[in-house]
Each structure stands twice: as structure tokens, then as C-alpha cells.
Design goal:
The chain is an alpha/beta fold and about 350 residues long. The chain has a single domain, classed as Rossmann fold (3-Layer(aba) Sandwich), CATH 3.40.50. About 45% of the residues lie in helices and about 15% in strands. The chain has an 8-stranded mixed sheet, with helices on both faces. α5 packs antiparallel against α6. The protein is globular and about 75 Å long.
């Protein structure tokens, strides 16, 4: 009987605790779903080339220029947290955040057998851009891409220059094979003969990216202080997740059930390699790079070499000190301050 009473008390306590968390979550997420007085806050699903894809549009002034944010990966959406750091730019931009096909809130297990190609991605980007221009009533938009998003975004603006007026690449990826070769060279210098690291390096093959090679690379980066998230976020992550205005319980369940193999397979295709920016240097409008000086996930030295070859009306390179690949998250305020500086110069 005593044990039964204890169980009832524990169950009651847990019920009260869960109810309290749900109430707090509802209040916090509801506040984040509000639209700014003179702005916009809208989420929607679009049918893009036969795939249901999610976007959010947020800004404090509808008259501000429009910025499309392209997440990394490929396949690594950031919709579970990105509203916190992208909204720091909302006073100068109307922001469009997008979960690319079959990841994040756009994940659909029924799409897993569709082969990913450059043509599909380019058409997705074109269709979305045309929708944004029409829906928000603007002629041109800007793109900010991180990591894979910088590679994807650069290809979009090169292919459809009439749609865009500014490109900002962050953690700029130029060519995946050269990037992995550069990492092996840097890691070998860091290892200085350390057998444990050298064995991890052996798992990395520039011609074939696997779960094991990604894990080995991340272990090396973390070991020597260059990890993607070497610095903690400059905001409180649990609250960010709890008060996410865009995720329901159903979304979180889907988030943990998603299958990433489709994107791992894409990594090793000629289709992915065809996004390489080697030999593609002519931009019709300003080109900007923001890279961390400790970024070896996507080698910042290769990004600098590419930047030096760029031909554009204007171009700028910014190097954030003591920053690795996760600079937008770990140093979101510093990144935001820099973005405001760029906006002031180019708008």
C-alpha cells in the first residue's frame, strides 16, 4: 500500500510538472508566433516541384529588402533553432527561412526514393525565388547561405542573376573533394605523428563521404579545438527549443524519425560534385564572404583563395576571429553586428 501511494505521488508530481512545462511552452511559443506591428510573421507549405516544402517569412518592416537564408548540410535544416539567430537580422531584412526538400519540416518519408540531382535543387531554388518575389512584391532578393547553403546559393545566383542583388556566403564551400583533401593536410599537421589521430585520418576519403568519415573528421576537429560548436551558443538553447514557434509535438517526432541516408548518398554522387565553384568567378552583383579563422570543417583558406579570383562589381571578405564553422550559432550577436554593417554598405 505504501509503495502504491508513493507511485501515485510520483505520477501526480510528473503530471503537474508536464502540465507546467506545456503551459510555459504554449505561452512562450505563442509570443514568438506574433507578427511585429509593422512587419510579417508567416509560415506555410509550398508545393515545389512535387515536394511539400516549408518556409517562414519574418520581418519587422515589410518595406525592408528580402533575404533568403539557405541552411547547410546538405540535408541539415536549422528550423529547430534558427529563428533565434535569424530574427536578430529582422530589423534590416524581411527573412525567408526554408527547409529544403526532404529535411526538417519539409521531411517526407515518401520522398526518400527520389534521386537528388543538381537539376532538382536548381529548379527548387528558382521556383521558391519566383514565389518570394511575387508574394512579397519585390524584383530582386539577397541570399545568405551557410556551408552547403553557400555552395547551393552561389550556384543559384550564378545561374539566375536577374533574380538577385547580393550574395553572402558564410563558411563558404567551393569544392567538396578539394575541401576534404585540404582537411587531411591540415589534420596531418595537427597530429604531429599522434597515432590515434592518424588512424582517424585514414578513415577520410575525399572520394567517398560516409558516416564513419564524418564522425572521424568531427572527432579530430573537436580534439584540437576546431569543432563546429567549439563555443557554446550565445543564447540559452533549452529555451530556444522549448519556445520554438514553428515546431509542434508532431514536428519533433518527425524530426527524430527522419532518415538522413538520402543525403549521405547524395554526397557521393557526381550530381553533388557538379555544384563545384571551380572556374566560376563572374558575379553580376556584390559578393560577400564571412568565414571563421578556425574553420576547417569547410576550409576557410580555400574560401579566401576563391574570393581572390572573384570578379564582381564589389566584393568583401570578413574573417571572424576565434570562430569555427558554427559561427552563426556560437557567435550569433557578433555575426548579426557584421551583417548589419554589410547591409549598411550595400543597401
Amino acid at each position: 500500500m505504501k509503495f502504491s501511494r508513493v507511485l501515485k505521488k510520483v505520477a501526480s508530481f510528473l503530471l503537474i510538472l508536464i502540465s507546467f512545462i506545456l503551459i510555459i511552452q504554449f505561452i512562450g511559443s505563442s509570443r514568438n508566433r506574433r507578427s511585429p506591428r509593422d512587419g510579417i510573421n508567416e509560415s506555410m507549405y509550398l508545393d515545389i516541384n512535387g515536394s511539400k516544402q516549408w518556409i517562414n517569412i519574418y520581418g519587422k518592416d515589410k518595406n525592408n529588402p528580402v533575404l533568403l537564408y539557405l541552411h547547410g548540410g546538405p540535408g541539415s535544416s536549422t528550423s529547430e533553432i534558427d529563428y533565434v539567430f535569424t530574427r536578430k537580422w529582422a530589423d534590416i531584412y524581411t527573412l525567408v527561412t526554408w527547409d529544403q526538400r526532404n529535411c526538417g519540416k519539409s521531411y517526407d518519408k515518401n520522398q526518400k526514393d527520389i534521386k537528388l540531382t543538381k537539376e532538382i535543387f536548381m529548379e527548387d531554388g528558382k521556383v521558391l525565388t519566383e514565389f518570394i518575389r511575387s508574394y512579397l512584391g519585390v524584383d530582386k532578393i539577397s541570399i545568405l547561405g551557410h556551408s552547403w547553403g553557400s555552395l547551393y546559393g552561389a550556384n543559384l545566383v550564378l545561374e539566375y542573376p536577374d533574380y538577385y542583388n547580393l550574395f553572402i556566403g558564410c563558411g563558404q564551400l567551393v569544392d567538396i573533394k578539394e575541401n576534404e583533401e585540404a582537411f587531411i593536410a591540415e589534420a596531418s599537421k595537427l597530429a604531429k605523428g599522434d597515432e590515434e589521430t592518424l588512424k582517424l585520418i585514414e578513415k577520410i576519403n575525399p572520394e567517398e563521404i560516409t558516416r564513419d568519415s564524418i564522425e572521424a573528421k568531427n572527432k579530430i576537429l573537436k580534439k584540437y579545438g576546431y569543432g563546429v560548436m567549439k563555443d557554446k551558443p550565445d543564447y540559452f538553447m533549452p529555451a530556444t527549443i522549448l519556445f520554438n514557434p514553428n515546431y509542434s509535438i508532431k514536428d519533433w517526432i518527425s524530426y527524430f524519425q527522419r532518415d538522413r541516408q538520402i543525403y549521405l548518398d547524395f554526397f557521393n554522387t557526381d550530381e553533388f560534385k557538379s555544384f563545384s565553384l571551380k572556374g566560376k568567378y563572374d558575379y553580376k552583383f556584390p559578393y560577400v564572404n564571412i568565414n571563421g579563422d578556425m574553420d576547417y570543417t569547410v576550409n576557410y583558406k580555400l574560401a579566401q583563395e576563391y574570393f581572390n579570383k572573384i570578379r564582381a562589381p564589389k566584393k568583401d571578405l570578413y574573417i571572424m576571429k576565434n570562430s569555427s564553422h558554427g559561427l552563426m550559432i556560437s557567435k550569433s550577436q557578433e555575426f548579426s553586428d557584421l551583417l548589419h554593417k554589410i547591409h549598411k554598405k550595400y543597401q
